[in-house]
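Quick illustration, no need to memorize.
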Amino acid sequence: MPSSKFVIKSETSNTFRANKIKSMFDCNMDVVTKTFDVSIPIEDAEWNIGLIVGASGSGKTTIAKRMFQDYELFSGYEWSGDSFVDDFSEMLTAKQITEALSKVGFSSPPDWLKPFDVLSNGQKMRAELARLILEADKPFIYDEFTSVVDRLVARLGSSAIQKFIRKQDRKFVAVSCHYDIEEWLEPDWVFNCDDMQFSRRRLRRPKIEATIRKANQREWAEFMEHHYLTHSHNNAAHKYICEIDGRSVAWCSVIHFPHPIVKDMKRIHRIVVKPDYQGIGVGAAFMDAIAGSYKQKGYRMSLVTSSPAFVLGLQKNPTWAMTRKPSRVAKSKGVLRGAESIERLTASFEYVGERHG
């Protein structure tokens, strides 16, 4: 995009009220003009993410539309399905849709089955972006990026989203009045509308400061609806909660491995990260910390999961080793609405800690 100088003109009305305001503030004009002198020199650069940022009224959207006329300006989708995943293009498979949702940090099968209008604002933003990344046939602009979400959710969501955009090698311009997302979105370039300055940079994401505390059984209610299989929970399990900025964002519980011969084995009973905080590695780091603490006490730690995204993540995690490849096991009667048995692929892992060499 080369430099561009342009003028935006808006004709004023000739109504009694408008004329009264003109006389009150001595601004008797028929046309209001604003001149823009913009330079975003990226035509020869390799990039994936750009950020146009500035205060309200600074011209962000006008600049984005003028400088990126060939891009798709996202203005929202129509969502009408009983499950919002049904609103994605019919050309996409369920696997493509769920993988995209997981990659942007929305990995919660129970919530995938809900209509769009009951999702949280953070979930809506990620669902829109997953659909946009999959369906848009050209680079795109997302106006008012993160404007309707909580600021912690905005920062963490930006981090998850940028990873997927880069992996898909898409071009994405975020337009926002919020400066706090810059380090988390890690844009390749930034245009600040406050001073009309362009900079080419990619800041490193700040470290996430999290704390772990013991939890009690009643706190499971905050997390159970987000578990991908069941709401049940063993009362005897040891329970832990991960907090960021004082907010409960993830749950992990541990039970003793139910085998009389294996006396030194514990097992992850439930691991849940609330949807708004997914996609940035909180769950993996939380689980590693818990498993590491038990290892120091002389216990091994195992895990069985049927979540495809979880299996893939654990395979890439050097602190966990796969002990059984994905295979089918029967689920007992009565767990899912009285079904006799439901076969599902599960894989087993064991915590091995940091590997060296």
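The mean pLDDT is 89.
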